[in-house]
Batch of 4 targets.
Target 1
Amino acid sequence: MGRMTDAPARWTEATVHPDMWADPDTDPRNNDGPAPDGELATLVDVLTNYRLTLRMKCEGLDAEQLARRSVPPSTMSLLGLVRHLAEAERDWRNWITEGEPLPKLYGRRDGDFDGAVGDPAVVEAAYADLEREQAATDAALDGHADLGARLGKDGIAVRELLVHRVEEYARHCGHADLLRECVDGRVGQ
């Protein structure tokens, strides 16, 4: 690993628009079909695209690169973001259930970032955790088409939870942009 002052050369795979991550014709987030119909479908579509964006920002990197910290003293890394969002998905389920909360995936506070080390097994486990937790939270919300319905001990509205999920992924995709550029110089929307 180079010194913090050694900046990688900026680059993109896009050939049509040099400020994009991928060309529009190969970007898996592009949908040539009609826009989603209704608020719920729109929120789910936006969330799906942010989830895909996070994965795209991590593609093509090895375990060490995914675990690389941005700037000290920050513990943030792309792998840490994957683990953090798995933890967040689990926590959101705790918001909408009446029972005992599920335990934290990675133990103590900040275990999601602190435990994000450059080990291929840790990377594989993080992606498996994220997929499992996303699917479980999606399933817990699937039966609640009324966005005004209030769930859990604190009565959070389904709409509020969905918007919060979009916000959390969007914010961390912004972090992922900067982290990826620090790792290998790749830029784009």
Note: The longest strand covers residues 150-151.
Target 2
Amino acid sequence: MAKEKQTFCLEGRFEGFMAGSKSPFKYLSVHGADDQHVVKLSKSVRLMLFRYLQVGDWIRVIGEQSIDQETGEPKLKAKEVLRVKPLEVVATPSSSVTSKTPPKAKQKKPKILICQKSTCRKRGAAQVCREVESTLANYGLTDSVEVKLTGCMDKCKAGPNMVVMPQKQRYTKVKPGQIPGVIAEHFQQQSNVG
């Protein structure tokens, strides 16, 4: 009988990493609305998260859930981990439990997608990621632009790869020095506010 896998999406507070046999960052601990969860990290996500996440961050974890054949317990494996604002996660006491959608239509948050596969990492994706986060902080855009670490973007020879959403503008062979200009070009109006 084949293992049946289902997609899961879990939101909660990041409580720290847990070590596995070969990696100190093999699992992450998330305190969700209903319970504590331990989620195995796929190798493609594992290497960047220890620089990216801090204990107490609100996160959304998306991945696959399967059932352990021996114990019958669910096993969670993350394919994607994103930082989110607490307002997206926490429901107010007066809100209805059955309604998960906010009362007003939510405008899509701008995102910067950065490939984290091995070829892009070897070509400097970690430095690009650090520069993106630093530049967003300098412009005061940390809360309004989401940084999303992704899997392969199918342009390995042109790495590091980055995409700015919602414009879907792709950047290849990205160097950290290019980041301030790219962010100014795409988010200049937002950074001028406040």
Note: The radius of gyration is 18 Å.
Target 3
Amino acid sequence: MAARVEHVVNTGEFTLDGGTWEVDNNVWIVGNDEEALVVDASHDADAIAAAVGERRLSAIVCTHAHNDHINAAPALAARTGAPILLHLDDRLLWRNVHPDTSPDGYLSDRRRLTVAGMELIVLHTPGHSPGAICLYAPDLGTVFTGDTLFAGGPGATGRSFSDFPTIIRSIRSELLTLPPDTRVLTGHGATTTIGAEAPHLEEWIVRGH
């Protein structure tokens, strides 16, 4: 049974450094008819659980620990029994949102996760946050980039725990080295490809300075 990607958009608030903004978040569900994995459980656990349905949820993967990407994770984990996985370097951001709970496991660079018989590779891509990760699915020709890479450029680096030179290094070394036809499924907004974004790296560097 072939694996596929499904998409849910949830709306809520992003809060950091004393500011609050309304945002639409992409939630990605990877799997088949029997098993699934969720990338970024945002805002509405009920909507995500409804999309997962009766499938076994093997993991809730957090691309980073800003509140709008993790605020529904504990409720979804409680409903499904799925472990919450986050890179260790974002544990402080996690505690700012969920001081009374902890992730069930910590991700590291090049760790392999398996869902529906398919391998997903963790790529540590700091910059937007210290523990930001992307999740590469070679069999699907897809990378889930969270807020590291969008259609049109890198994720924001103007707030706490972020750094522009670091995100550029991450994109250059970990993402733009993927095959050009790799689909980029982002944390917000439109889908793109590695090939569509790669030619613009130098423009981003000039713009970022």
Note: DSSP finds seven helices and 14 strands in the chain.
Target 4
Amino acid sequence: MKMDKGQRLVMIGDSITDCERKFPYGEGLFQGVGKGYVSLVDTLLQTAYPELNLRVTNMGIGGNTVRDLKERWQTDVLDLKPDWLSIMIGINDVWRQFDQPAIPESHVLLEEYEHTLVELAEQALPGLKGLVIMTPFYIEPNAEDGMRRRMDEYGRAARRVAERVGALFVDTQAVFEPMLGYVHPTAIASDRVHPSLTGHMLIARAFLQAIGFDWKRMSGEA
């Protein structure tokens, strides 16, 4: 596993990350880390690696775009001095283009998205042991659907950023594809965006695989 003893992981993003976390800092008892994939990541890390005493902090805020992350980057990332950082952003950057087509100032177009994500990653990197960039997603199996097609463009941008800055990369969109062969997308997320706990587990599993989580530890084999 790539994380070491006493390290802090900050996970930042939008409502998918937020998931009713505690404010101002999403950590601690009574589901301070929220009720989504961050909570599952925290739970699995604490269960499998109790000796590492890892600290997980959820800094997601519902409705955020990459533009919003830029506004709070100093206080909500850099000032927290994380050892590890994960970024999953872009859903609202795309969604506002579809649900608010007449309000262009709420749209974060692809060039701004990619440029800002690079800027934020490069600001954080000097103090990090590891960075994970996760794609935005839209739980729709038809890749020709307008919003799904646009979301995939932003996902490819996230991949380019990860490659440019040397970050670990998680194709969050791809983790839903196997399940969509068996169930309708509304069984995972009624609005195709905010996933059920099953959907959050798929995200958490993909993140943990990226950081080298040893699943044998969950069965007591390691």
Note: The beta strands are 8-13, 55-58, 84-88, 130-134, 168-170.
